[in-house]
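tool=predict chain=A
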Amino acid sequence: MLEYSDWQGYKVSSNDDSFQICSSWQLQGIPVFGPDSDYTTLAISLLNLMNSKGIKIENFTSNETEIDLEVLKIATGIDNSSSDAEWYLTCHDDASLSISKSPDVNISKPSGLNEIDAELYQQINLAWEKETSLENVSQGAYISSQQYGESLSSRLKLLAQFDQKAIWPPRQLNDDGTVINHPEVQLNRTCKIESWTKLSAAGAPSEFSIRAPILDGISTVYVLFEEGTRGVFLLTDDQYKKPEIGLSGEIVVRKIYSQEGEIRYGTKVQLI
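tool=predict ok
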Protein backbone atom coordinates (compact mmCIF):
# COMPACT_ATOMS: atom_id res chain seq x y z
CA MET A 1 0.00 0.00 0.00
CA LEU A 2 1.33 3.43 -0.94
CA GLU A 3 1.93 6.01 1.77
CA TYR A 4 0.21 9.38 1.42
CA SER A 5 1.64 12.82 2.10
CA ASP A 6 0.23 16.35 1.99
CA TRP A 7 0.38 18.35 -1.24
CA GLN A 8 -1.46 21.59 -2.08
CA GLY A 9 -4.23 20.80 0.39
CA TYR A 10 -4.70 17.23 -0.85
CA LYS A 11 -3.31 13.77 -0.08
CA VAL A 12 -0.90 12.27 -2.64
CA SER A 13 1.07 9.08 -3.13
CA SER A 14 3.29 7.78 -5.91
CA ASN A 15 5.66 5.18 -7.24
CA ASP A 16 7.47 4.90 -10.58
CA ASP A 17 4.36 3.96 -12.55
CA SER A 18 1.45 5.53 -10.68
CA PHE A 19 0.53 8.84 -9.08
CA GLN A 20 -2.58 9.20 -6.93
CA ILE A 21 -4.35 12.15 -5.33
CA CYS A 22 -7.32 12.29 -2.99
CA SER A 23 -9.36 14.95 -1.25
CA SER A 24 -8.31 15.60 2.35
CA TRP A 25 -11.98 15.49 3.47
CA GLN A 26 -14.33 12.62 4.22
CA LEU A 27 -17.98 12.18 5.13
CA GLN A 28 -18.79 9.16 7.27
CA GLY A 29 -15.54 7.52 6.22
CA ILE A 30 -15.89 8.17 2.48
CA PRO A 31 -13.60 10.77 0.80
CA VAL A 32 -15.53 13.76 -0.56
CA PHE A 33 -14.55 17.04 -2.19
CA GLY A 34 -13.91 20.14 -0.12
CA PRO A 35 -15.90 23.36 -0.74
CA ASP A 36 -13.84 24.59 -3.73
CA SER A 37 -12.34 21.39 -5.17
CA ASP A 38 -13.33 18.96 -7.92
CA TYR A 39 -11.70 16.51 -10.33
CA THR A 40 -10.23 19.37 -12.40
CA THR A 41 -8.38 20.87 -9.43
CA LEU A 42 -7.20 17.40 -8.38
CA ALA A 43 -5.81 16.70 -11.85
CA ILE A 44 -3.98 20.04 -12.05
CA SER A 45 -2.46 19.50 -8.60
CA LEU A 46 -1.33 15.96 -9.41
CA LEU A 47 0.29 17.05 -12.68
CA ASN A 48 2.07 19.80 -10.72
CA LEU A 49 3.37 17.12 -8.37
CA MET A 50 4.68 15.05 -11.28
CA ASN A 51 6.35 18.11 -12.75
CA SER A 52 8.01 18.88 -9.40
CA LYS A 53 9.51 15.39 -9.47
CA GLY A 54 10.95 15.96 -12.94
CA ILE A 55 8.39 13.79 -14.74
CA LYS A 56 7.44 15.56 -17.95
CA ILE A 57 4.49 14.23 -19.92
CA GLU A 58 3.20 15.72 -23.15
CA ASN A 59 -0.17 13.99 -23.27
CA PHE A 60 -2.31 11.35 -21.67
CA THR A 61 -5.32 9.20 -22.44
CA SER A 62 -8.59 9.98 -20.71
CA ASN A 63 -12.30 9.66 -21.40
CA GLU A 64 -13.29 11.52 -18.24
CA THR A 65 -16.16 14.00 -18.55
CA GLU A 66 -15.81 15.33 -14.99
CA ILE A 67 -12.67 17.31 -15.90
CA ASP A 68 -12.52 20.66 -17.69
CA LEU A 69 -9.84 19.59 -20.15
CA GLU A 70 -9.41 23.10 -21.57
CA VAL A 71 -8.62 24.52 -18.13
CA LEU A 72 -6.32 21.56 -17.47
CA LYS A 73 -4.42 22.20 -20.70
CA ILE A 74 -4.05 25.92 -19.97
CA ALA A 75 -2.86 25.30 -16.41
CA THR A 76 -0.36 22.56 -17.25
CA GLY A 77 0.34 22.81 -20.97
CA ILE A 78 -0.51 19.12 -21.35
CA ASP A 79 -2.84 17.91 -24.08
CA ASN A 80 -4.91 14.76 -23.65
CA SER A 81 -5.52 14.19 -27.36
CA SER A 82 -3.31 11.13 -27.85
CA SER A 83 -5.01 7.74 -27.84
CA ASP A 84 -1.68 5.91 -27.54
CA ALA A 85 -0.20 7.98 -24.72
CA GLU A 86 1.96 6.34 -22.08
CA TRP A 87 -0.10 7.70 -19.19
CA TYR A 88 -3.77 7.18 -18.28
CA LEU A 89 -5.78 9.70 -16.26
CA THR A 90 -8.64 8.12 -14.31
CA CYS A 91 -11.23 9.68 -12.00
CA HIS A 92 -12.34 7.45 -9.14
CA ASP A 93 -15.69 7.56 -7.35
CA ASP A 94 -14.35 8.61 -3.96
CA ALA A 95 -13.04 12.14 -4.73
CA SER A 96 -9.74 10.75 -5.95
CA LEU A 97 -7.82 10.56 -9.20
CA SER A 98 -4.85 8.69 -10.61
CA ILE A 99 -2.36 9.16 -13.44
CA SER A 100 -0.63 5.89 -14.19
CA LYS A 101 0.90 3.76 -16.91
CA SER A 102 -1.92 1.25 -16.50
CA PRO A 103 -5.61 1.88 -17.18
CA ASP A 104 -6.53 -0.33 -14.22
CA VAL A 105 -5.62 1.22 -10.87
CA ASN A 106 -6.94 0.39 -7.41
CA ILE A 107 -6.57 3.48 -5.26
CA SER A 108 -6.40 3.11 -1.49
CA LYS A 109 -8.01 5.48 0.98
CA PRO A 110 -5.56 7.76 2.82
CA SER A 111 -5.54 7.86 6.59
CA GLY A 112 -5.98 11.03 8.61
CA LEU A 113 -8.72 12.62 6.48
CA ASN A 114 -10.68 15.51 7.99
CA GLU A 115 -14.35 14.82 8.72
CA ILE A 116 -16.61 17.39 7.06
CA ASP A 117 -19.90 18.41 8.63
CA ALA A 118 -22.72 16.64 6.79
CA GLU A 119 -25.00 19.69 6.74
CA LEU A 120 -22.20 21.96 5.52
CA TYR A 121 -21.31 19.49 2.77
CA GLN A 122 -24.90 19.34 1.55
CA GLN A 123 -25.34 23.12 1.68
CA ILE A 124 -22.14 23.78 -0.28
CA ASN A 125 -23.08 21.31 -3.01
CA LEU A 126 -26.57 22.80 -3.33
CA ALA A 127 -25.06 26.29 -3.44
CA TRP A 128 -22.74 25.35 -6.30
CA GLU A 129 -25.67 23.78 -8.18
CA LYS A 130 -27.69 26.98 -7.76
CA GLU A 131 -24.76 29.19 -8.72
CA THR A 132 -23.99 27.10 -11.83
CA SER A 133 -27.61 27.01 -12.99
CA LEU A 134 -28.26 28.99 -16.17
CA GLU A 135 -31.24 30.49 -14.38
CA ASN A 136 -28.94 32.13 -11.85
CA VAL A 137 -28.02 35.73 -12.66
CA SER A 138 -24.82 36.76 -10.91
CA GLN A 139 -25.08 40.06 -9.08
CA GLY A 140 -21.32 40.55 -9.24
CA ALA A 141 -19.16 42.15 -11.89
CA TYR A 142 -19.89 40.46 -15.22
CA ILE A 143 -16.88 38.80 -16.83
CA SER A 144 -17.54 37.35 -20.25
CA SER A 145 -16.23 33.94 -21.27
CA GLN A 146 -13.82 35.70 -23.65
CA GLN A 147 -12.41 37.95 -20.91
CA TYR A 148 -12.11 34.98 -18.57
CA GLY A 149 -10.31 32.90 -21.19
CA GLU A 150 -7.89 35.66 -22.23
CA SER A 151 -6.45 36.08 -18.74
CA LEU A 152 -6.69 32.46 -17.61
CA SER A 153 -3.23 31.37 -18.78
CA SER A 154 -1.29 34.08 -16.94
CA ARG A 155 -3.37 33.56 -13.79
CA LEU A 156 -3.20 29.78 -13.59
CA LYS A 157 0.46 29.59 -14.64
CA LEU A 158 1.49 32.65 -12.56
CA LEU A 159 3.11 34.26 -15.60
CA ALA A 160 4.38 37.77 -14.88
CA GLN A 161 5.82 40.49 -17.06
CA PHE A 162 9.24 42.01 -16.49
CA ASP A 163 9.93 45.72 -16.82
CA GLN A 164 12.92 46.36 -14.54
CA LYS A 165 10.89 44.38 -12.01
CA ALA A 166 8.36 41.55 -12.04
CA ILE A 167 4.80 42.73 -12.70
CA TRP A 168 1.76 40.62 -11.85
CA PRO A 169 -1.03 40.45 -12.76
CA PRO A 170 -0.05 41.39 -16.33
CA ARG A 171 -1.02 44.79 -17.69
CA GLN A 172 -0.70 46.58 -21.02
CA LEU A 173 1.29 49.64 -19.90
CA ASN A 174 3.91 50.37 -17.25
CA ASP A 175 3.89 53.34 -14.88
CA ASP A 176 5.28 55.58 -17.65
CA GLY A 177 2.62 54.54 -20.17
CA THR A 178 4.98 52.33 -22.20
CA VAL A 179 3.71 49.03 -23.61
CA ILE A 180 5.07 46.04 -21.67
CA ASN A 181 6.08 42.73 -23.24
CA HIS A 182 3.90 39.64 -22.95
CA PRO A 183 4.05 37.66 -19.67
CA GLU A 184 6.97 35.25 -19.70
CA VAL A 185 8.33 35.22 -16.13
CA GLN A 186 7.24 32.15 -14.15
CA LEU A 187 6.63 33.17 -10.54
CA ASN A 188 7.50 30.78 -7.75
CA ARG A 189 4.30 29.38 -6.23
CA THR A 190 5.43 29.98 -2.66
CA CYS A 191 4.72 33.35 -1.07
CA LYS A 192 4.65 35.24 2.23
CA ILE A 193 1.53 36.72 3.83
CA GLU A 194 1.91 40.50 4.31
CA SER A 195 -1.67 41.23 5.36
CA TRP A 196 -5.06 39.58 5.34
CA THR A 197 -8.74 40.41 5.65
CA LYS A 198 -11.82 38.38 6.45
CA LEU A 199 -14.99 39.62 4.82
CA SER A 200 -18.29 38.80 6.49
CA ALA A 201 -21.02 37.16 4.45
CA ALA A 202 -22.73 40.55 4.14
CA GLY A 203 -19.51 42.26 3.06
CA ALA A 204 -18.33 39.65 0.57
CA PRO A 205 -18.46 40.45 -3.17
CA SER A 206 -21.90 39.69 -4.56
CA GLU A 207 -20.65 36.93 -6.88
CA PHE A 208 -20.03 34.93 -3.68
CA SER A 209 -23.40 35.81 -2.14
CA ILE A 210 -24.75 32.25 -2.32
CA ARG A 211 -21.77 30.50 -0.70
CA ALA A 212 -20.34 33.20 1.60
CA PRO A 213 -23.05 32.80 4.30
CA ILE A 214 -22.44 29.04 4.38
CA LEU A 215 -18.67 29.52 4.69
CA ASP A 216 -19.05 32.24 7.35
CA GLY A 217 -17.50 34.81 5.02
CA ILE A 218 -14.40 34.67 2.84
CA SER A 219 -10.77 35.59 3.50
CA THR A 220 -8.29 37.35 1.25
CA VAL A 221 -4.52 37.67 1.64
CA TYR A 222 -1.98 40.15 0.28
CA VAL A 223 1.19 38.20 -0.51
CA LEU A 224 4.79 38.82 -1.52
CA PHE A 225 6.45 36.58 -4.11
CA GLU A 226 10.17 35.74 -4.14
CA GLU A 227 10.48 37.74 -7.35
CA GLY A 228 9.40 40.91 -5.53
CA THR A 229 5.91 41.37 -6.96
CA ARG A 230 2.77 41.22 -4.83
CA GLY A 231 -0.82 40.12 -5.31
CA VAL A 232 -4.19 39.68 -3.62
CA PHE A 233 -5.72 36.20 -3.48
CA LEU A 234 -8.61 34.40 -1.86
CA LEU A 235 -7.73 31.77 0.72
CA THR A 236 -8.87 28.25 -0.10
CA ASP A 237 -12.38 27.68 1.26
CA ASP A 238 -11.41 24.70 3.42
CA GLN A 239 -8.42 26.41 5.04
CA TYR A 240 -8.15 25.23 8.63
CA LYS A 241 -5.27 27.56 9.56
CA LYS A 242 -5.84 31.17 10.50
CA PRO A 243 -3.75 33.51 8.32
CA GLU A 244 -1.03 35.49 10.07
CA ILE A 245 1.47 38.03 8.81
CA GLY A 246 4.72 36.26 7.95
CA LEU A 247 3.20 32.84 7.29
CA SER A 248 4.12 31.03 4.09
CA GLY A 249 1.55 30.12 1.48
CA GLU A 250 1.38 28.29 -1.82
CA ILE A 251 -0.59 29.32 -4.89
CA VAL A 252 -3.01 26.56 -5.91
CA VAL A 253 -5.84 26.20 -8.43
CA ARG A 254 -9.39 26.00 -7.09
CA LYS A 255 -12.96 26.76 -8.13
CA ILE A 256 -13.61 30.49 -7.72
CA TYR A 257 -17.24 31.09 -8.75
CA SER A 258 -19.70 30.21 -11.50
CA GLN A 259 -21.09 32.38 -14.27
CA GLU A 260 -23.08 31.67 -17.43
CA GLY A 261 -23.55 28.08 -16.28
CA GLU A 262 -19.82 27.33 -16.09
CA ILE A 263 -17.38 26.95 -13.23
CA ARG A 264 -14.65 29.59 -13.30
CA TYR A 265 -11.28 28.43 -11.99
CA GLY A 266 -8.50 30.56 -10.60
CA THR A 267 -5.67 30.79 -8.09
CA LYS A 268 -6.01 30.84 -4.31
CA VAL A 269 -3.57 30.63 -1.42
CA GLN A 270 -3.15 27.48 0.65
CA LEU A 271 -1.30 28.21 3.90
CA ILE A 272 1.67 25.94 4.58
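The chain has a mean pLDDT of 88. Helices lie at 39-52, 69-76, 118-132, 145-157.
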